Amino acid sequence: MWTYLLLFSGVAVVLIVFVRRVVLHLRKDAPEAPVEAPVEEIEREKKVRVSKDDKERAQELCNRGEAMIKAGKDEEAIKCFVQALGLNKDHQETKHNLAMLYFKKQMFSAAAALFQDLGEATKDPVHFSHLGLTLYKQNDFDGAKKAYQSAVKLDNSRPQRFVSLSQVYRSLGQVNNAIIALDKALGMEAENLDFKFLMADLHVEKGSLGSAKVHLEEILVADAKDEEAKKMLRKVNKTMKELQGGESSL
User: Fold this and answer.
1) 41 HSE (CA, 13 A, CB side)
2) 98-108 pLDDT per residue, tens
């Protein structure tokens, strides 16, 4: 009996050793579970540290680029701004200057990318307005609409932004929305004859000739010599008479 017990114990020991070796082997070959870094550490890694010397050099290059613009040397200015952003990619003054130059050169894709970055970083409505115009120039009307909507959401005190948004809606074929946006501009500058003329034109496009006539007559009360308003009013009156004649014949 004791002999069997000793044999059994020996076999058990061998089995335990074998199992432990297998487990250790599997653990050794298995891939290690990824260790997640703290959120703070990840955020720190996202931010590229810029040395004091690089910041100062970037500012010098930005100043030099601005001087080149005043001297009419746009290409040299672009080189300066690109070099400055190479040293400090978050230098907002440089980004703005370079974006404006790209827009001037009709390099709209490059300008839009910079205005997009600026808008997201600063939440400045001016940058979103510039982005809207840049995208509009590329016929990206959906993008332009979103940009101008962001601009007026951040600052709805400037009527021209609503006028720009109105023009984008019109390009999208959304005449009713264009009228609503332009009406907000007129609410701030009720005596602006240019706004009134645009409103009359939108109503003509919509087919609301009576409303168009009202706005045109208001323009001529303020400025009896406005030839464009006179011409449009004649067309509106003629069309209204033709429509009324057609209805009478029925």
Assistant:
1) 4
2) 999 999 999 99
